[in-house]
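Hi support team,

I'm filing this because I wasn't sure whether my run with nicotinamide-adenine-dinucleotide finished correctly. The job status page said complete, but I'd like someone to confirm that the output block is well-formed before I use it downstream. Pasting the exact inputs I used:
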Amino acid sequence: MRKIKHFIDSGFVESSSGKTFDQVAPATGQVVGQVSEAGRNEVNQAVEAARNALTGEWGKLNVEQRCELLYRVADGINARFDEFLAAECEDTGKPYSLARHIDIPRGAANFKIFADTVRNAANKSFEMATPDGAGAINYSVHVPKGVIAVVCPWNLPLLLMTWKVGPALACGNTVVVKPSEETPATATLLGEVMNEAGVPAGVYNVVHGFGPNSAGAYLTEHPGVDAITFTGETGTGEAIMRAAATGVRDVSFELGGKNPGIVFADCDMGKAIEGTMRSAFANCGQVCLGTERVFVERPIFDEFVARMKSGAEALKPGHPEDAETNLGPLVSEIHRKKVLSYYELAAEEGANVVTGGGVPKMPGDLAGGSWVEPTIWTGLDDDARAVREEIFGPCCHISPFDDEEEVIARANDTEYGLAAAVWTENVSRAHRVAGRLEAGITWVNSWFLRDLRTPFGGMKQSGIGREGGEYSLEFYSETKNICIKL
Ligand code: NAD
Ligand code: 6OD
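And here is everything the job wrote out:
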């Protein structure tokens, strides 16, 4: 049986306690490996390695040298593309067709893009007058923050981990990564790539385990960690924020969402259906930016629902590697229980189940996987729990609306504020509505179209801070002012 170990100080190590947990493939439910579970010992070692690396060979590199190493890491991922693809799809069950175009290429791109961003970042300077007439010059420089804890979710494991490790390393920090317990593989494989690329020991470390009373908590509580970047549930963010309060450590949080999609009668219907289908069902609905609340202007409501129903029923669950598969399983049996509990709740709350609502009958070895049917509801009030709470599965509720003011108020009536999608061919309306939606990102006539130079993050309970482009540099470095009296 495969063993997945921690990656500490450039070596693969098991836990001193000998404790392990199962690595399960969600497409089949089969145990495919054993993962070492870190105790405080391993977390201490990883943080110590990361601290030492700050003042070792890594700390002495200039920005060009660092960026060259990160380019090599990106090339290393691409050189082992098929291994990353197989590992990511086994851990998540997601279709190869999806991960081949999104997860793995972004895993590599995240290193190159942030290397370029740091290399091209300009520093500000200010001249000032002084009483003696000689003057002074102030200029700012960016220095690394130190050891960054990177705590990751399971939905886009490599993409979301490198989205943070890339800028953290580009800025000269060192990292200790805690991947999700559900998806330990690609973070570990990246350790091999770091060694092959020549990244010095201790710069990139990985510890495996769970959250509370396990590796996640030990890492975020550790006084040797200078800042914490986290992607995951809002409730977990609250726990991590409490841990970060000790020592007044900085946090960057990308949290949950219950994102609205607003479809106006003047939309291009084909594009709105295609985009809403993707935003509700891609990655089996396990995308934080996904649309779980769809509002459709009344004149096109019936046609929109009918076309979404046909689209959902045409999705093809299957083996991740099969070319025609475009729907994977949920990530785990635990998550399936949660999603199915919302399927039951929606029915109890009086939803009209347009399609789905249950578990598909899967053939052969897939019968043991965490499959659920793509599901569409109509008929619930905006205050139904299935319409207010994040489900994170392949499902959405569609409701009609009558005017712009009404739909903006309903879309904003949520404790979350991560993303929104607006479908309209009226350019004035597009600007007007997008400007008033309480969301960190609003797409008009598209969804998940990413320019990595732009700010990314959530309003309200969907996050703290922004990452992306120069916004990442703000979190991953300290800005110092130097004042030179002439
Ligand atoms: P989660 O919060 O359960 O777990 C995320 C990570 O935190 C895991 O590695 C877990 O082990 C760790 N963890 C859990 N409790 C901890 C604790 N007390 N201390 C330290 N670490 C702890 O989230 P998940 O189930 O892995 O991911 C799904 C959630 O992530 C959804 O809510 C989704 O919306 C959110 N998400 C948000 C974004 C975004 O960009 N805003 C992106 C992806 C996922
Ligand atoms: O594309 C990204 O950079 C990003 N952070 C995506 C988040 C997706 C959430 O599931």
